[in-house]
Amino acid sequence: MKKFSFPEGFLWGGAIAANQSEGAYLEGGKGLTTVDLMPTGKNRWDIATGTVDSFKPKEEEFYPSHEAIDFYHRYKEDIALFAEMGFKALRISISWARIFPNGDDEQPNEAGLKFYDDLFDELLKHGIQPVVTIAHFDVPVHLVEKYGSWRNRKLVHFFETYAKTIFKRYKDKVKYWMTFNEINMLLHLPFVGAGLVFKEGENKLQIQYQAAHHQLVASALAVKACHEIIPDAKIGCMLAAGMTYPYTCNPDDVYKAMEKDRESFFFIDVQSRGAYPGYAIRFFKDNQLSIDMEDGDEELLKNGTVDYIGFSYYGSRATSTDPEILKQIGSGNVFASVENPYLEKSEWGWPIDAKGFRITANQLYDRYQKPLFVVENGLGAVDEVTPEGEINDDYRIDYLRKHVAAMGEAIQDGVEILGYTSWGPIDIISASTGEMKKRYGYIYVDKDNEGHGTLSRMKKKSFYWYKEVIASNGGNLD
Hints:
Blueprint: E1 11-15, H1 18-21, H2 43-48, H3 71-85, E2 89-93, H4 96-99, H5 110-125, E3 129-135, H6 141-147, H7 154-170, E4 176-180, H8 190-194, H9 204-229, E5 234-241, E6 244-246, H10 251-273, H11 278-286, H12 297-303, E7 308-313, E8 317-319, H13 323-326, E9 329-330, E10 337-338, E11 344-345, E12 351-352, H14 354-368, E13 372-376, H15 394-412, E14 417-423, E15 443-445, E16 457-459, H16 461-471
Parallel strand pairs: 1-2, 1-14, 2-3, 3-4, 4-5, 5-7, 6-8, 7-13, 13-14
Antiparallel strand pairs: 9-10, 11-12, 15-16
Helix pairs in contact: 3-5, 7-9, 9-12, 14-15
């Protein structure tokens, strides 16, 4: 394996989300969030895309977020394991409903604020920098039920209040922030990304892009507040990234691939460049979409641009204009993609493309000329515990080795990357399927898809591999 030289102070670590790890879903004064209404099984996808018939959990359903892996009570044990691996950073999210249980409360919930105080103190005690996402797929349910979630302009104010509250509280503990996790997911899983619920006959596209505008304004306000309250902090955006390849060199395929990439770049273009791009304005016109903007919004977007680009990368995508080729669209990922014959796939049908990681990093850096932060990357797979109590996840090591090497190549290409927090350093609930058997971690959690298990933690083979990667600052990937 080629030896790579990563920058001094490179932030190696892992990433989790509150709604997939904490559990304790109504403990400490926390309110219901959107993910608390997402069961496992056949109904999950309909809810994720905006068909929600109840704003309360149903007795007959199993909701994996309610207990998750109980990080809320076990975080000290888990952070000690992350520290043993040598983590320099841990990306987490704050649950909005732990701080403001209803979202529109007059005063924050002190028990929720204290929980994250204690969590950040524990990280800092071990020399681990918190990297905090303000909104990671969990809108307070009250805001959905009363206001229609992000379709309503009032959420901009509620979000700004929430952001300012946590900036003031944690200004001495958190120096890396992100506004919205995978903000482009609003177009693919609108309930997950923005708490959107649709009624029959509504213009979904209009609602989605109006909600997007509200999130973009809220992001700009959060950036402004962060810079004022914590001048030495960095605040970024976050994209679910992955290069879209044209299936052939037919110019029609090439143009369609560009359009597919622009669906996602639209959000980051606004957050990074500070204005709506021309192609988006044409798209709104061609699709008879009218975005309601208030006076001052354009100035807010212009002055509220992010400091860095956070992104997740799991694989590339491919598209075609050929109806026969389009029949080969895979079903494994949220992003519909024509199957790429040059790539292997994961057990869940996701394309594995380490070279695409390098291409995507270059693409983002060329486009924005701002530092990048790889805040998600990993392999979901079924892990088996041997009779000797070992978990030999060589397939995960192979995936990560190739992707870290590709990141090293991107850095040599001149791409500025702040750090790498691989997804799910400990097994957590899958965001897309709600499963536990789809594992990403270096640390195994004894729990199954039905919620059974001791929740005990166990080190996998990849635990020791990643420990050596961090100790060598990426120099030893063997």
